[in-house]
Amino acid sequence: MFELLYAKTEAGRAEIRARALPLSRTARNLLLVLDASKPAADWLRLVAGATEADFETLRQQGLIAPQNAAGQPVAVPPVTAPAPLTPAAAPAAAPVSAPPAGSPLLDRAALYTYLSGEATKLLGPFKGYAFALEVERADSLPALQALALQFVERVQKAKGDAAAAGVREALGLR
Predict the structure, then answer these.
(1) Which of 49, 123, 134, 155 is least surrounded by CB atoms within 10 angstroms?
(2) DSSP H or E segment with residue 67
C-alpha cells in the first residue's frame, strides 16, 4: 500500500479549505503536501512526525486515493474501518462553461494535478510550495485557470522563455 502513488481527492481538497474534520497536525500537514509525484512511503519520511496511522486516517476518510503514474485512480480493496466522520458540506460545483479565450484547455482535475506537480519542479522548493498552497485554495475552474496563467509568467521569470513555452504547451495555451 505504501509503495503506491496517492493524491488528494475532491473531499481532500475541500477539507483543506474547510478544516472541518478533527485531523492531527501531522495528518493535516501530510494532506497539504501529498500528491502523486512520490509513493506514500516517501511522503511519510518527508513530513516530520507523520506516521502510517496518519496516512491511514486520510485514506479511511476518503481524503486521499491511490493513483497510477498517469494520474488516474487505481482500485484498492475496501477499507474495513469505522465510518468516516462527516465533513462540513462542500460547496457545489459551478456549471461548466467554455473557457475564456487565452485560458488553459484542461479540466479542473487535470489542471490541479499539473499545477500541483510541476510547481516545485519549475519554481523551486520554496516558491513552488507557496504556489501549491495557492492551487489548494483555488475553489473553481476559473480560479485555477487564472493561476495557470500566473504560473506561466512565474516560470518565464524563473526559468526563461523555453520553459514557459513548455508550460504553455502542456496547458494547451498558444
Answers:
(1) 49
(2) strand 64-67
